[in-house]
Design goal:
Length: about 260
């Protein structure tokens, strides 16, 4: 198999970006950052469902998710539902593989000279730091992978349903609409699995609902703000493919 045609090279590039960003999100997601603090704003201290002092403390994995949203919708637009499903399943398999390799690496005996290192003027146990950063719990891993798959499957179906109703117009509607619905599901599935049914945590449904809504509100805003970038990438691809090939792919994608 070669990638000599424009459409095959485009699929390879888009698919690579989707998968790489999905894997990156899993590993950088261990860091929790404050959105307000990063923007220089005071914390919002939201009270919801009896849960107090909520603010926008997000997993750093949300940094790459907007790119995943866009890649998903662009691939759906030009290559159809089946190709998005294929890439989503492949990404999930590769994420599992990555965690298996990381788990193996965590089990390796560290060298004596490497364990204690001076970092920023402090002695750091590098082995403990390594295991703490990469050693996510199985419930969190399972929750994030299942949420990713469910969200992706819902996204592609809604995207095509809106497209069949509106035709080629309103790219923003089918892209943003499908993302908002899929990310609503994703936001709650990952929390429900990782923290509600996980026996290591004692989260109430109120906490799941409150934190899920706070997380979703952030994703909601980002999805809307990313709309201009979606149109920019769509325009670049149309110019790369040419009008005839671009229309042909979009038509074929709708029929698949």
């Amino acid at each position: 198999m070669t990638f000599k045609t424009k459409e095959s090279r485009l699929f390879l590039i888009l698919g690579s970006f989707l998968i790489s960003n999905a894997i990156l999100a899993e590993f950088i997601g261990v860091k929790i950052f404050t959105v307000e603090g990063s923007l220089g704003l005071p914390k919002f201290d939201i009270n919801m469902f009896g849960v107090k002092d909520l603010s926008f403390n997000m997993s750093a994995g949300v940094v790459t998710w907007p790119l995943i949203f866009i890649m998903t919708d662009i691939i759906n637009e030009y290559f159809g539902v089946k190709q998005v499903r294929f890439l989503s399943i492949l990404a999930s398999i590769l994420i599992c593989y990555a965690f298996v390799v990381v788990g193996f690496a965590m089990g390796l005996e560290p060298s004596d000279f490497w364990i204690n290192q001076m970092v920023a003027g402090e002695v750091v146990n590098m082995n403990t730091a390594f295991n703490s950063i990469f050693g996510q719990g199985m419930w969190i891993i399972a929750g994030s992978i299942i949420a990713f798959l469910v969200g992706q499957m819902v996204d592609v179906v809604i995207f095509q349903k809106i497209k069949r109703s509106t035709g080629e117009k309103f790219l923003w509607l089918r892209a943003t609409g499908s993302t908002l619905v899929s990310q609503f599901i994703d936001s709650f599935v990952v929390i429900f699995i990782a923290f509600y049914i996980n026996p290591l945590y004692d989260w109430s449904w109120q906490m799941v609902a409150a934190i899920g809504l706070v997380n979703y509100s952030y994703k909601f805003l980002v999805a809307i703000l990313m709309t201009p970038l979606l149109y920019l990438i769509h325009g670049i691809i149309d110019r790369y493919l040419g009008t005839e090939l671009s229309k042909k792919l979009v038509l074929q994608a709708s029929e698949k």
